Amino acid sequence: MDIHPLSNYPLPSQSSLQLQYVGKNLNDILTPAAVIDRAIVRRNCNAMLNATKSLGVGFRAHIKSHKTLELSKLQVGSDIHCPAEFVVSTLIEAENLLPFLLECQANGRRCSILYGVPIPISALPRLLRLALTLKPGTLNVLIENIDAFLEFNSQVVKAMNQGKDPVDIGVFIKVDTGYHRAGIQTTSPKFKDLVKLVVDSYGEDFRGFYSHFGHSYAGSSEEDAANGLLEELNGLEEATKAVPTNSVSKLTLSVGATPTTTAVQNLLVSSVIPAAEELKTVIEKLKQKHHVEFHAGVYPLLDLQQIATRARPSVGQSQPGFESLCMNNIGLKMLVEVTSVYDEREQPEALVSAGSLALGREPCKSYPGWGVVTGDLGNSGNGRIYDAQGNKTGWMVGRISQEHGILVWQGPKDQMMPLKIGDKLLIWPNHACVASAGFGWYLVVDSNRNVNEIVDIWVRWRGW
């Protein structure tokens, strides 16, 4: 009997949730809750689209961070003349995205989806069913291993022999450009054999090369981010040398991670990065022979890990193609409630109704905490917000357990913003992807209207 993951992970009724929440104030909501500022994420999405368009490169939106239809649409924009290209980390994301992809195809909008991790053999039947639902060539996979490719190819051939419709799936080869999580290095003795096997087997359905520069999170400057992008582009250019001449008309070189991809915004504003001109030159050179594509995922939401990379300036006015990289541009916040106060301790502390299941347990290199209390809701304000890159005075999550966290006051005690039991607070998380994973939906606010009023509910997809 077939397993049907979508029906195994039913989603709550969006209309019912909207009736319960829309119009309410965040101060009246049970905690913990995940809050998205629609105005912020829309600006972040538009800046990315404008930046890549200005540079004449493609963009592929990763949706694993948020797993929602609404934000997926913002990431690719509404212009049907611009392609809607996506990356997913789970098949459930692709299956939930399917209606929108079919809508794009019905409207004549080019679209595609890339299953952005090496393929589990057990997932192949679901993946093939998805490919048959979409137009030929819409679905793409990553290959990094000869044995895995042979298994994948045998399953495709088997499906074609059993079915009436041809199975047409595109293939990218994932190249390890230094992250060492997944991918094959161009220096591997197996690399040329893998390229030849894929090209011989798939011809024009061999799309090109893909790299994820995940270690760019360790960067600490605009120059680090630009140099990381240069390293990726040069690494994929090296990979193209293994492709037999004239075997494929045009290759796609897909590079990125949020720090490196969003760093291209620096090229559109006044910048003193030594690597800027070299980066422009390399991009233009590669565009002459290949289709250059950037990808990123957490950039609409941002988080404290991203702020710590300093991949873009932290100050500057919003403009097409550029948004400053600062805490005020973090689009995801976690709503918590103060349940106890310990202001008699040497460092004042407070207990809040959110722990590792609501905030995540991933550290941030720039400070020793697990989240920072924002200045919203009027309970932590007066400008006393902990800033790891500036004024280290404010409330941060200093310790964390499964269902609760301990806020610790940083800075002079006489400057402390008092808290009381029942206060509602918003917290910027270290890592948005992990912090949001425990929630079934997002409370959506819009700071262009009223930062504390819920204007919509976005249901978050569940499962794998």
The largest pleated sheet is described as: 9 strands, mixed
Going by CATH, the homologous superfamily of the largest domain would be Alanine racemase
Label the overall shape. Answer: globular
Query: CATH fold name of the largest domain, please?
Result: TIM Barrel
Radius of gyration: 23 Å
**Domain count:** 2
Mean pLDDT: 93
Distance between the termini: 19 Å
- Strand % is 15-25%
> How many helical elements?
14
The poorly predicted ranges are none
Helix fraction, binned, reads 25-40%
> Structural class, from secondary structure content?
alpha/beta
CATH architecture assignment name of the largest domain: Alpha-Beta Barrel
- How many β-strands, per DSSP? 17
CATH class of the largest domain: Alpha Beta
Report on the architecture of this protein:
With 464 residues, this protein is an alpha/beta fold. It has two domains: 271 residues, Alpha-Beta Barrel (TIM Barrel), CATH 3.20.20; 100 residues, D-serine dehydratase-like domain (Lyase, Ornithine Decarboxylase, Chain A, domain 1, Beta Barrel). Helices cover 31% and strands 21% of the residues. The strands form two sheets. Strands 1, 10, 11, 12, 13, 14, 15, 16 and 17 form a nine-stranded mixed beta sheet that branches. An eight-stranded parallel barrel has the order 2-3-4-5-6-7-8-9, surrounded by seven helices. Helix 9 links the parallel strand 7 and strand 8. Helix 3 packs parallel to helix 4 and helix 9 runs parallel beside helix 11. The chain is globular and about 70 Å long. The mean pLDDT is 93.
